[in-house]
Amino acid sequence: MPEEExxxxxxxxxxxxxxxxxxxxxxxxxxxxxxAPASTTTGVAPSTQASNPVPAIGIPGSxxxxxxxxxxxxxxxxxxxxxxxxxxxDGLDKNIEVIVNKGTVSFRISSEVLFNxxxxxxxxxxxxxxxxxxxxxxxxxxxRIVVEGHTDNVPIQTERFPSNWExxxxxxxxxxxxxxxxxxxxxxxxxxxxxxTRPIAPNDTAQxxxxxxxxxxxxxxxx
Length: 223
Hints:
The protein is an alpha+beta fold and 223 residues long.
């Protein structure tokens, strides 16, 4: 009788070995998604992983606990540098309006302050106003400078200025030339004329037209 039952013991031993092998294979196959190692988290720096330990989950019958990938929050983007930091604004002329937008600081000056009517050369008072702006522009030497000329919608037709395009561009260029003569680096600057295409007030009143006749000096952070 014991001899007849010997095959049964051998059969049980084989089944036991197969079960152990299956448990080991399941332990390795279940440690990641679709065969990928669970300890690898794509797009996360090693320092971030170290500060956020991955939890280990035990599965009955496994040789070792399984590590599951955890989605970690991306670091917050750096806060934009304040463009007003370091700007020398104390000595600005009262005729210069300072406008702060996202990524830029603009200095808006009425054309009546800077130029004589239908002219593009800076007047005496205009030179004085622009001279007080130079220290502010040079206090942040890494920023670009865009000088924009703007007019109202009243047509102009002279030998020098056939239209408001020429007048607005000439006034912007005149400001750039003056700033360069005062030590502002030429490579930082560009001049643009927009004529009456970008009004900031309605052109149907004298006050609105006067508001639209202006020069804007814009500081832009370098990208």
